[in-house]
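Module 6 notes. Inverse folding takes a fixed backbone as the condition and produces residue identities as the prediction. Think of it as a translation problem where the source language is geometry and the target language is the twenty amino acids. Below is one complete input and output pair. Work through it position by position during the lab.
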């Protein structure tokens, strides 16, 4: 008899965890409260366009955990590599290439020639761990003795990778750890053909092909414990028993689930941390507007536009174009209702770089408060562990959990970690080894 695992939450973390275990012979049940799988990685079809709720950029493809999943199971990922020479900064009065390649570094106007050499040296120091940051020191402070151009560029880069307009608040060790990985990759940014939906479907197929059970519209309401062991979880429609449980739902949901137990306080700290939130403004156009860039970052207001359909033609009707604009928000801006101002700002940036877009507009999707990451990695905000000592058969995964990278990389790496722990200690594994 194979061991039973119940996975709660059908976002990228839950799907990848369930698929890996099902592929390795576990009897898996995946429970998702929504009618559709995918969580924040869903696609929204509208008038022939396929809007991704979130972007589907994968950073450091050759070191990414998706590559590992791909090598272990029949996961289909249609990689579409980003063209770095088409990435530009909008500096207000001029546009200039990003120093994302050697050629970009040579051509960019964000650095003078002396600082270009210095920047290359900074990259070298980061890659070789000569520069590691310092515990308790934020990157804004850590870089304060750097020349203004270098500091400004490093914070701008961090702003776009961490989806934040407060890059100076990123802990310096995390900053250097992140960029050590990113600078050492041959493919810093890639997209996925078919968007996240293709990955969602592929994980779901692996679960079902291996006898796994996927139950949608099943909100998990309660956990029942015997001492420190979880024995049963209670859903809206049914109850479920298993040997191991992986919870891929955010801390606030976990706090509700464990409300009647002494374990609720495990989650309170993480529930109170602030998320990374943005304004998203996607437009679907009837025909392409020619542009020298596929990514333009407006530096003054920290807004970027990506021409998604340049990389993934499947998201548009023939000849059409789909672009995504993202403006970062911090807690004060949300409280002060600045999201509406950002919408107007984004439209003006579209006017500047995609003139005529209003006449060609077929469909648009605006979200004034999209949660990119449940726990924003700034200051003393910590990510949640994948496992607590006090709950032996419970595991946790999601972009609020400890792992590598940021955004979905955290979902995937924590899911990989949780499933590795189950497989390492499982009797099923012992049988396989014997
Ligand atoms: C605008 C935007 C842009 C983004 N861009 C990128 C990008 O370029 N690159 C990148 O890597 N990432 C990006 N992301 C982030 C990425 O989408 C997320 O990190 C990832 O999808 C999170 O997956 P998850 O499984 O960890 O969490 P979620 O997607 O939140 O999944 C949690 C799931 O649990 C379900 N659930 C909750 N409570 C219960 C319950 N009680 N019972 C049953 N089910 C429950 C929810 O319905 C949900 O499906 C972006 C996100 C947004 C919003």
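Target side of the pair, the amino acids:
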């Amino acid at each position: 008899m194979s061991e039973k695992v119940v996975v709660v939450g059908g976002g990228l973390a839950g799907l990848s965890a369930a698929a890996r275990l099902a592929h390795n012979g576990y009897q898996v049940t995946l429970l998702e409260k929504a009618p559709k799988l995918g969580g924040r990685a869903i696609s929204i079809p509208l008038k022939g366009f396929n809007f991704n709720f979130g972007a589907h950029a994968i950073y450091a493809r050759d070191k990414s955990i998706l590559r590992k999943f791909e090598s272990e199971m029949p996961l289909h990922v249609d990689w579409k590599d980003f063209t770095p020479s088409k990435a530009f900064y909008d500096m207000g009065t001029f546009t200039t290439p990003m120093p994302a390649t050697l050629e970009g570094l040579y051509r960019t106007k964000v650095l003078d020639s002396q600082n270009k050499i210095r920047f290359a040296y900074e990259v070298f120091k980061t890659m070789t761990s000569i520069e590691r940051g310092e515990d308790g020191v934020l990157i804004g402070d850590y870089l304060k003795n750097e020349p203004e151009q270098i500091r400004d560029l490093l914070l701008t880069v961090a702003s776009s990778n961490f989806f934040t307009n407060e890059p100076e608040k990123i802990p310096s060790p995390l900053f250097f750890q992140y960029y050590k990985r990113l600078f050492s990759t041959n493919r810093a940014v890639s997209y996925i053909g078919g968007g996240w939906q293709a990955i969602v479907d592929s994980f779901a197929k692996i679960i079902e092909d291996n006898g796994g059970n996927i139950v949608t519209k099943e909100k998990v309401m309660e956990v029942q414990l015997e001492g420190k062991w979880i024995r049963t979880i209670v859903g809206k429609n049914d109850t479920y028993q298993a040997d191991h449980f992986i919870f891929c739902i955010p801390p606030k949901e976990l706090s509700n689930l464990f409300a009647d137990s002494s374990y609720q306080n495990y989650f309170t700290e993480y529930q109170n941390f602030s998320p990374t939130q943005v304004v998203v403004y996607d437009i679907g156009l009837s025909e392409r507007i020619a542009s020298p860039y596929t990514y333009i970052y407006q530096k003054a207001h920290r807004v970027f536009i990506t021409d998604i359909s340049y990389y993934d033609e499947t998201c548009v009707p023939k000849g059409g174009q789909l672009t995504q604009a993202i403006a970062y928000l911090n807690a004060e801006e949300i409280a002060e209702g600045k999201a509406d101002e950002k919408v107007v700002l984004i439209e003006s940036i579209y006017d500047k770089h995609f003139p005529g877009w209003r006449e060609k507009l077929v469909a648009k999707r605006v979200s004034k408060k999209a949660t990119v990451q449940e726990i924003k990695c700034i200051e003393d905000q910590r990510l949640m562990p994948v496992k607590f000592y006090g709950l032996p058969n419970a595991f946790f995964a999601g972009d609020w959990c400890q792992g590598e990278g940021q955004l979905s990389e955290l979902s995937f790496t924590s899911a990989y970690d949780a499933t590795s722990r189950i497989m390492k200690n499982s009797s099923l594994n012992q049988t396989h080894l014997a």
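Reference fact for the lab report: The mean pLDDT is 94.
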